[in-house]
Amino acid sequence: MILGAGSVGPVGAGAIGNGRAMAILFAREGAQVACVDHRLEAAEETTAMIAAEGGQALALAADVTREEEIARVVAATLAAFGRIDILVNNVGGSVPGGPEELTPEAWHAQFHHNLHYVHLSTRAVLPVMVRQGGGAIVNLSSVAAHRNIGPDLMAYAASKAGVTALSRMIAVRYAAQGIRCNVVTPGLMHTPLVEARLAGQRTGGDVAAIVARRNAQPPMGRMGDAWDVAYAALYLASDEAKYVTGAEIVVDGGLTLKSP
Ligand SMILES: NC(=O)c1ccc[n+]([C@@H]2O[C@H](COP(=O)([O-])OP(=O)(O)OC[C@H]3O[C@@H](n4cnc5c(N)ncnc54)[C@H](O)[C@@H]3O)[C@@H](O)[C@H]2O)c1
Hints:
Number of strands: 7
Strand content: 5-15%
Mean pLDDT: 96
Low-confidence stretches: none
Order of helices and strands: EHEHEHEHEHEHHHE
CATH superfamily: NAD(P)-binding Rossmann-like Domain
Largest sheet: 7 strands, parallel
Oligomer: single chain
Bound molecules: nicotinamide-adenine-dinucleotide
CATH topology: Rossmann fold
CATH architecture: 3-Layer(aba) Sandwich
Structural class: alpha/beta
Number of helices: 8
Shape: globular
Distance between the termini: 38 Å
């Protein structure tokens, strides 16, 4: 089950964000994928891409920040596939602001969008995985949880650091029950988010300027893409990672190792 399996890009453009790339890769490996998104048409675009490759997927609409909607998609996934072996918490996004600019409401909204729902979804899926005798949870953090990456992203950084910490707690607590919990930490990725939101927020709509700025930051001289994130998630979700829990794979082209 992938939460946020659509894409922030426009429907019909076939845009590939992290959640969609994961859904496609997991299906290529034989997983039956429940693609959950608050935009049903975005989830359906993902399932259509999977079906076109001969894979199996189910599109489900839900606002994952609502407990009853999480319960509904967990039940629908169990009804369709009989089990939930993998949970990916991919929903997330940033709102810029430092301590003086961010209102308390904006701060809470960021925590709701990035962290609170991760508790709701794990709380709903853990009993299923315990009953099954195991499972794998993959949570999406960000390098912003570790260091300043340019813009002031105070609430995003703090809430993503919370995702990483929560994941380690779950890893230790549920290790004996065969449930692993790991983190993928992307750096600056060229996902549809760059065009759909960041250009407007940070360069007054100048897409070329935001792309150039982000390409210039990592030592590799370019942003990564959604597939880079998806392959890391695929490994952590797979049986090949059977002895890996509480770990974090940083996918950032060396960004966090670079001196400012
Ligand atoms: N793109 C980057 O550069 C980058 C960098 C670091 C971390 N990340 C993280 O990766 C994850 C995915 O980012 P992305 O940019 O690839 O986005 P994405 O294209 O994977 O889209 C996220 C999806 O979540 C859906 N969504 C949003 N709110 C929802 C809600 N309340 N309920 C259900 N679905 C909802 C959106 O419709 C969208 O389809 C996020 O957690 C983000 O913070 C991204």
